[in-house]
Amino acid sequence: MACPASRPRRGASSSRWRIAASVGGACREPAGRVAVMIFSIAVTVGLVLYQRHVVRRTGSIAVSADELHYRSDVVLNGGVILALVLGSALELPLLDPLFGAAICIWIVYSAVRLVRLSLFQLMDHELGDDAREKIRAIAQSHPDVAAAHDLRTRVAGPTAFIQIHIEMDGSLSLVRAHEISDAVEAKLRSAYPNVEIMIHQDPEGIEEPRSGFSRRVAAR
Fold first, then answer.
1. Which residue in 59, 60, 81, 124 has the fewest CB atoms around it within 10 Å?
2. pLDDT of 2 higher than 80
């Protein structure tokens, strides 16, 4: 917080000057500086906690970057307070630049990690092998699904896309096949909330070109 250094311009009210002078006096006192910084840290911590909650729910890189900005403020202010207290108690003025250098390294590390995550989200990619096996296991867990094949996945930003073929008894009615497909989709959406799902229904035993991976993976 900036401390007022001079009297106000001509015409300013004396009450405004008294308020500014009192704040300035608090700023010039070590205890006043620390109190102002602690208040600032408390408010910023509340904002950081809320932003982390939003990031967990949405996976937003933009909010994550903003959260890093405010988290850096918290760490920086906390480091300044700690350096002031320890520097005064131990009479070690070198603590201040050491704390500053450590915080700078942490900020650079966090920024690099955030940039890597941003690039990873900007470039479409496939879900990992564990996730793909889990998806196939969920699809095949339905008692009326004989097998699952041709699973294709893609992640673009915070949204994932799942496309899968499921095999069912060929004598089932179209309505029943649709109900089974909806049930499988509901299970997949429960495990992966932010997904777009497309399920193709195949009669069991019909031969068609398939992807190279195994048609059936045992549920774990």
1. 124
2. no
